[in-house]
Specification:
Radius of gyration: 37 Å
Shape: elongated
Number of helices: 22
Length: 618
């Protein structure tokens, strides 16, 4: 594991490898006035996480302690939210610029809220584990398969495989298990619930027909035994010989006494026991208990769905308030989906997000437009066309020369005036008029120069662009990011813009970045240089302070994922797909920021184009 220190983070913040720093246009953060955390607050945060509050740890500065917590919890189960909150705090632009306010808030309050989220995740995981274990037990009881504790610990898919290979499984159960094994996790759960029961009933009917033959009494006996075994499976109880031999009323009494209080299964059992009609007892054993179980299941599902909607609404509200657009979009999608999709989002999806956006309405938008990624992220680039730059330079030079000429004329006229004797009144009056005229000409020349200098400065001050536009050009839909700038430098020049704030995206071995880019030539704007337009790429910032551009990672064509290494590798006037495998370089790292970047060495001139359909997926 690579240990992250503040020194490492700040070391990565320089020059071309700088991490996000606050742009001068950023408003002052609300936490800037936070006083540093006290020793007691640091100790409380550490104890809450089960970490020893040693003198070394409590002696750390706030951001150093935040990084220490992030490192100390690496590899621990159910600590993802705390680690995500820590990353958010210590990679905040203000934190990297030296303002520890966000780290202080993490230690003082955010760590406790994040811990509660981790506890909620753990509870949900344990509940899911309980549900899966019950399904496994019921499935095993259904077919009479004896299982061990280790068997219950198998994944759902591997447990389905265990059933598929069991000699207790009949032909239909094996076929159903095979189909489920090759299907989705949700379909595997369905098989362990109702699917195996239906398949086993069909297998059992055939088995009874074969075993009983023409013996009707034996056939009825086997049917009753099968019905009782299935009824007891609802309680996750294996049938004993005594239970199979008990009277219907005694059998139902056992279910009544052992069913969970308040359930429909128990209530229906009580009504059946109190009935004097044998038909009611038989109906309960064969069908009533299963109808009651289904009623309980549907009620539980309704309650869970209502609770899940409330939880997802809270996630959406919090994400929206925090500007976490990826999480907000995922929450809205889950709320609009099925109960299964909502459950998946709350249990897993919200903590392990993907980025998929074409910048259409309802999709992940930009967090920033035209915002430099750090203080000197734009070098040698503006939005003043080269021809205009040259024209302004020529104008400034000519007006400067005109000022010099006019100033010389003033000096000459003044010298001529000084040489005329005071007694020559008429001559001196003419010379004085000449001085006045040359001074007026100098004032005009100076005014013209000032105007030329101001126009030159205004053009030079025009900033390169990075924003979403509609109905211009798009790979899909109608929206895309448009980039535009003018390279003014014959040496190194670059423009890096923050675009999307990323949260809860952790790189796995299979994670890849994909995007489409359309470099323009002069077809839209005549001063755009096609070669310049290809010197662009999507850049990423990671939780350890490293960047995609400096990682050595390559795209699907073997070109480095650095904007200057994309120069000439992209085809102008068409959509180019770029795909980068992130897992080889960043496995386990969280991605914190997505940037749009232009970078190249010697060439000058305008560049322009579009990015669309950006995704980070596994």
């Amino acid at each position: 594991m690579k240990i992250i220190t503040r020194a490492r983070l700040t070391g990565l913040a320089g020059a071309a490898t700088a991490v996000v720093l606050a742009a001068t246009s950023f408003p002052a953060p609300a936490y800037a006035a936070e006083t540093p955390a006290t020793l007691a607050e640091k100790a409380a945060a550490l104890r809450a996480l089960g970490l020893e509050p040693t003198a070394v740890r409590t002696g750390y500065k706030d951001c150093d302690l935040t990084i220490e917590i992030w490192n100390a919890l690496a590899g621990q189960q159910f600590r993802g939210e705390v680690r995500t909150a820590a990353v958010t705090a210590y990679t905040d632009p203000a934190s990297l610029a030296g303002d520890a306010g966000k780290c202080t808030l993490f230690i003082r309050t955010d760590v406790f809220a994040a811990k509660q989220r981790d506890v909620a995740i753990q509870i949900a995981a344990e509940e899911q584990d309980r549900i899966e274990r019950e399904l496994k037990q019921k499935a095993a009881l259904t077919i009479g398969l004896t299982i061990t504790t280790d068997d219950l610990g198998l994944t759902v898919k591997n447990f389905v495989d265990l059933i598929r290979k069991s000699d207790k499984a009949g032909t239909r159960v094996k076929a159903g298990a095979q189909t489920a094994y090759d299907a989705s996790a949700a379909e595997q759960m369905t098989f362990l619930g109702d699917g195996i029961v239906t398949a086993h009933e069909a297998d059992r009917e055939e088995q009874i027909r074969i075993e009983a033959g023409e013996n009707e009494a034996l056939r009825l006996k086997l049917i009753e035994e099968a019905a009782r075994k299935r009824a007891l499976a609802v309680l996750l109880v294996a049938a004993t010989d005594g239970m199979l031999a008990a009277s219907d009323r005694d059998f139902i009494t056992y279910i009544w006494e052992n069913a969970e209080e308040g359930t429909t299964v128990r209530g229906a059992a009580e009504r059946a026991v109190l009935s004097r009609e044998p038909a009611d007892w038989n109906d309960y054993i064969h069908t009533g208990i299963h109808e009651a179980r289904e009623a309980d299941r549907q009620l539980a599902l309704r309650k869970k769905y209502e609770a899940d909607v409330a939880k997802a609404d809270a996630v959406l509200a919090e994400a929206t308030a925090a500007g976490q657009h990826i999480l907000a979009v995922a929450a809205r999608k889950a709320l609009a989906g099925s109960a299964t999709e909502l459950d998946q989002f709350l249990r897993v999806g919200q903590f392990d997000l993907d980025l998929v956006t074409g910048f259409e309405t309802g999709e992940v938008p930009l967090n920033w437009s035209h915002t430099p990624a750090w203080s000197d992220a734009i070098q040698g680039v503006n939005a003043c066309p080269i021809a205009d730059t040259q024209s302004h330079a020529t104008k400034v030079a000519s007006t400067t020369a005109a000022v010099a000429t006019a100033a010389a004329s003033v000096r000459s006229a003044e010298a001529a005036l000084a040489a005329i004797p005071a007694s020559s009144t008429a001559a001196r009056a003419a010379a004085a008029a000449k001085v006045a005229a040359t001074k007026a000409q100098l004032a005009t020349a100076e005014k013209n120069k000032a105007a030329a200098v101001a126009a030159q400065a205004a053009c030079a001050a025009k900033k390169p662009e990075n924003s979403v536009v509609n109905n211009e050009r798009a790979h899909t839909g109608t929206s895309a990011i448009r980039y535009y700038g003018v390279d003014q430098s014959t040496s190194r020049s670059h423009a890096y813009f923050n675009a999307i704030n990323l949260t809860r995206i952790t790189v796995k071995p299979t994670t890849k970045l994909t995007y489409w880019v359309y470099p323009e030539s002069n077809s839209w704007i005549n001063h755009v240089v096609a070669a310049n337009s290809t010197c662009v790429a999507v850049d990423l910032l990671f939780s350890n302070g490293s960047t995609l551009r400096d990682s050595g990672a390559v795209d699907q064509k073997g070109n480095r994922a650095h904007p200057s290494f994309q120069c000439g590798k992209l085809t102008p006037e068409t959509w180019n797909k770029v795909e980068v495998n992130l897992g080889a370089h960043f496995n386990g790292q969280a991605i914190t920021t997505l940037r749009i970047a232009y970078d190249q060495y010697p060439n000058t001139g305008s560049y322009r184009g579009y990015f669309d359909d950006i995704s980070i997926t596994d």
